[in-house]
Amino acid sequence: MGCKPNVVMYNIVIDALCKSRYVSDAVYVFYVMQNKGVVPSVVTYNSLIRGLCKSGKWSEAAGLVNDMRMKRIEANVVTFSGLIDACVKEGNVLEAKELYKEMIQRCIDPDIRIYNSLINGLCMDGRLDEAKRMLDYMVSKGCVPNVVTYNTLIKGFCKSRRAHDGMKLFCEMAHRGIRGDTFTYNTLIHGYCRVGKLNVARKVMRRMSESSVPRDIITFNILL
């Protein structure tokens, strides 16, 4: 007799198929395992949800979350991370926030990836002050922001001609010991140029040089 596949074996196959972008094949294996009496685990669902989201099949991924609820399989932070990111990329910030609320209700602590996705969505939706409040809230919950968090917010404020608020965030990130990168400085320089404050833009460029942050072609093109 051969070795009967168990949930671990199926999980390895499904995850490998999803990572190789053979998501339809992964879904087929998912149904095969259940027909053979093997009960999927949260790991199974997470692999499929992540694969479906990356393939743009958000509604199918959301359907799997409902399936988990029906089967009383507890979702975790990984389950929600892929879904929230997919919602934001689809421009569905409202649904992303609903998923976030569901996480909180289930006592699942969001991680940096989820907060960054939500902040990005709020910024793209023009809800900048709400995005800043989300940053303050995540900090209050002990989740440490990173350069991506701040770059997203700075870009949002500068794009909305609020370069001064972008600079406040830049000072805040420096105070937290988070070093700005080329994108951070380019965004601020461009933001100040957009509102006609060329002298401030040049000061930011000098600070960029003093901080040994590499310039790129975008840096120089902004001031031309």
In short:
By secondary structure, this protein is mainly α.
Task: Characterise this structure.
PPR repeats lie at residues 6-40, 41-75, 76-110, 111-145, 146-180, 181-215. Pfam families: PPR (PF01535), PPR_2 (PF13041). GO terms for molecular function: mRNA binding. The structure is a single chain. The protein is mainly alpha-helical and 224 residues long. The chain has a domain at 146-224: Serine Threonine Protein Phosphatase 5, Tetratricopeptide repeat. Helices cover 72% and strands 0% of the residues. It has 13 helices and no strands. Helix 3 packs parallel to helix 5 (77-89), helix 5 (77-89) packs antiparallel against helix 6 (93-105) and helix 11 packs antiparallel against helix 12. The longest helix has 13 residues, at 7-19. The termini are far apart. 38% of the residues are buried. The mean pLDDT is 94.
Write the CATH fold name of the domain at 146-224.
Serine Threonine Protein Phosphatase 5, Tetratricopeptide repeat
> What oligomeric state is this?
single chain
Mean pLDDT figure: 94
Number of strands: 0
Low-confidence residue ranges: none
Rg (CA only)? 22 Å
**Annotation field: number of helices:** 13
What's the level 1 CATH class of the domain at 146-224?
A: Mainly Alpha
Structural category is mainly alpha
Q: Write the element-wise H/E pattern from the N-terminal end onward.
A: HHHHHHHHHHHHH
Please tell me what the overall shape is.
elongated
Sheet of most strands: none
CA-to-CA gap between the ends? 74 Å
Mind telling me the CATH superfamily name of the domain at 146-224?
Tetratricopeptide repeat domain
Strand content: under 5%
